[in-house]
Specification:
Helix content is about 70%, strand content about 5%. The chain folds into 3 domains: about 5-45 and about 60-160, no CATH class; about 165-215; about 260-295, no CATH class. The relative contact order is 0.04. β1 (about 5) and β2 (about 10) form a beta hairpin. It contains 13 helices and 4 strands. α1 crosses α3, α2 (about 60-70) packs across α3 (about 75-90) and α4 (about 100-105) runs parallel beside α6 (about 135-140). The strands form 2 sheets. The protein has a two-stranded antiparallel sheet. A two-stranded antiparallel sheet has the order 3-4. The protein has helices spanning about 10-40, 60-70, 75-90, 100-105, 110-120, 135-140, 150-160, 165-175, 180-185, 190-215, 215-245, 255-280, 290-295; strands at about 5, 10, 125, 130. It is mainly α. The protein is elongated, with a radius of gyration of 37 Å.
């Protein structure tokens, strides 16, 4: 069975490609010629521009190109693009059989001699096995985003471009994380894992705040639970000390052991002072010194 490309066989496809390449050549020459016309009207000049002669009225570059664009039915941006490309590619350095689009992309190479030399060295096209320029090959060379991503990095850049807004990125990320393998690899990244954990905590706090606002009874229950937890902590500490101290009767502690117990007692005193202050004033914040002491630093 003959190989088909779209709805045509390979022979017809080759005929259409040949015809289209001729048309691309015609269009490329026309685009370069428009750029040359714009350059004749407004040559590229060093900073400072042109100076009018006696009795002459000097249009600004923008005004001249805008009038030219309007008179030929193109946008100013298109005319400016053609002008820049024509300036970067004098006729003797243009490559026959290479599209205007490739010349435009390679215009990003700043140094003239490098740019003119590069177009003479087309890369290998893996699909056809020949050396030729394509728009994507040129974009790949200058670091632009390609139209048909091939490598992992190119595909990632394309996704980033499409998901530039937070709204789209959130939907895409949610869809991807439903894949077990994707979720597993994502959680292996420390930064991503911490970001997800922070988001979960923030989400829980926000949800809890909404519930508290809608359910006043819950706030009273939380208040009671907090009170009971503090009383329970005090009771548990006293009970533990009540058992531990008598049990140590007759024991001799080393200097290091005694120092450790004294350090723990200092932390207990600091915690009790903090507790009493919070109960009396409602201020539960910690200063830096107290926070370090409670952490045992």
């Amino acid at each position: 069975m003959a190989r088909m490309v779209g709805q045509v066989n390979a022979q017809r496809y080759a005929e259409l490609v040949a015809e289209a390449r001729n048309l691309v050549g015609v269009v490329s020459r026309a685009q370069f010629r428009i750029g040359e016309c714009a350059l004749e009207i407004e040559p590229l000049r060093p900073t400072g521009g042109a100076h009018p002669g006696p009795g002459e009225q000097l249009f600004s570059v923008a005004e001249s190109l805008a009038q030219f664009a309007d008179d030929i039915g193109l946008s100013v941006r298109t005319v400016e693009k053609h002008r820049t490309v024509a300036a970067r590619w004098p006729e003797e350095h243009r490559r026959e059989g290479v599209s205007y689009e490739v010349h435009r992309v390679l215009s990003a190479i700043e140094v003239d001699k490098d740019r003119w030399a590069m177009i003479k060295r087309p890369p290998l096209d893996e699909r056809t096995g020949t050396r030729r320029w394509t728009a994507d090959a040129a974009k790949r060379l200058v670091g632009w985003q390609v139209g048909r991503p091939k490598t992992v990095q190119e595909k990632v850049e394309a996704i980033h471009d499409l998901a530039s807004s937070d709204e789209v990125a959130a939907v895409v990320t949610t869809d991807f994380l439903r894949r077990p393998e994707v979720a597993s690899r994502t959680m292996a990244d420390t930064t991503a894992r911490h970001a997800v954990n922070r988001a979960q905590v923030d989400h829980s706090r926000q949800a809890a705040h909404v519930v508290r606002q809608r359910t006043p009874e819950l706030r009273r229950l939380e208040h009671t639970a907090g009170f009971m937890e503090l009383v329970g902590a005090c009771t548990a500490f006293v009970a533990t000390i009540g058992r531990a101290v008598p049990a140590s009767r007759g024991q001799r502690f080393t200097e290091d052991e005694a120092a450790t117990v004294h350090k723990g007692a200092a932390r207990v005193r600091a915690a009790v002072d903090w507790l009493e202050s919070a109960v009396d004033t409602g201020n539960t914040s910690l200063d830096q010194g107290l926070a370090k002491l409670l952490r045992g630093e």
